[in-house]
Amino acid sequence: MKSRDQEYKEIFIAEALEYYDALNRHISDLEKDPENEQLLAEVFRLLHNLKANAKAIGYEAIADVSHKLETAFGLIRSKELSFSDEVVTVLFDGIDMLGEMITGIDGTKEVEPSQELLRNLDIVINSSADNNAELTKVQKYYTTKNLSLSDLIYIQIKKLDHLLNLVGELIIDRDRILSISKELDHDDLKNVSAHLYRITEELQYSVMDARLVNVGSLFNKFPRIVRDVAVAEKKEINLDIIGQDIQIDRNILQIITDSLLHLMRNAISHGIEKADVRKKAKKTPQGNITLSAQNDRDTVILKLIDDGKGIDEEEVRRAIVQRGFLTADAAQDLRNTEVLSYLFEPGFSLAKEVTEVSGRGVGLDVVKNAIDSIGGRIKVDSKKGEGTTFTLFLPTSIAVKGALLCQVEENFYAIPLMHTDSVVALPTSELHEVGDLLVADINGETITIVSLKEMFNTDLNDYSVKKSNLEHDVQNIIIVTYNNRKLGLIVDKLLRQQDIVIKALSKPVNTIEIYAGVTLLGSGKVCLVLDVAAITRYFIARR
Fold first, then answer.
1. How many CB atoms lie within 10 A of CB 436?
2. Where is the HPt domain (predicted)?
3. Would the pTM of this model clear 0.70, i.e. be above it?
4. What pLDDT is recorded for position 150?
5. Every domain of the chain and the residues it spans
């Protein structure tokens, strides 16, 4: 695995080379149209970003040259400096030098800007057109050094998206070929199939690896955010960041960025108490927040932990009743984890006041929806007076996902491992009828049990099952989890775990809520992917 410094260096070089190419194009266009305000603004923006990025990663010489060029273009924008031939030459020299310094980062010796160039840039910045004659002619570096290309290239993420989709199609065909080779029992075909499997697997992981970035690229933006929000809220916050080196698909990190920002603001604004309140509770005046990442097989687990006032579960129960989600009796029957799951319901809020920063509970449905969209899940744990932990379980890849395959009657179904808690074999006698539903006590929890056979064969609104409808004395049950809630799904057969490529359903079946997509098995059989979120929401609401 790459070190964090190496990862940041490669990201910087890729972006800096993109800036350098754009600067070359824009300055050439400016030479033809020096009054073009849009071009001047874009050049200024590129140099400003390059300066900031270089300074952040410690490339002071690149930051210095970028800063001087940024200042020069600022003077040109404000009409304090003319875009004369002499000035253009110096600016071209400066940008050329930037290119050499950027491409030289990976070299054996760091490239330093020439003294003549720095002198000329200072003259341009500090003088008028009258003494531009003082400018020293700088020998362009590319007339006396060989041209070289960086080993790094900038790739648009949409190109990698397309490539990964093609790999997904290839995986489906590969599994089909492997199945056929076993059926025909032909040695040459078996050998070719085995080789195809290895090559395809290596290709899959290579493409997925190209999309990986360190979560630190997001995490390291939070110290400034925490400082700004803490100042606005008049609070002192200590932020600990752990696991910046953990890698995740860039698209997944992009999608959860706003969600993590929202959770952080909530933690500071309505999780952490004021200093005087903390002192009375025998806590440190300074609030503590931890943002961490860790790997667990094919899952990245992000946690945001605060040592604030926690969430009052009884207050949540009252809010559930007041907002019409459940009756008072039903709310009292909820398990503690189920109580907190209502924080993610649309419109649910515990905020007693409107502030610049959202109150805890406000907008958490948006957070959950964002995480659902990538096949992840979110969990909240809290203890009154001690603090709250939000845990995000995220897949490392969007296109290829681990799933548990099962069979109901003659049909095959896939349940994403992200939502699979456990598998149990339960005697039918241990199931209990509650209205039209079945429930069972599993590991100390009362869990609603759903017969997938009955669900598939009846309209959801007419779903009803009795123990007498079940065929076997022992039921194979897959326990799934979503939004702090668990549900048991009865299946006929448990097959195996397998990586699958999920494809969108076509019309008109794409409107059926209980299906999240479809995949093809190696046997050529169609396998529907169950939408655990939709199924769980429906049956928990019925209970």
1. 12
2. 1-105
3. no
4. 53
5. 4-143, 157-210, 214-395, 400-542
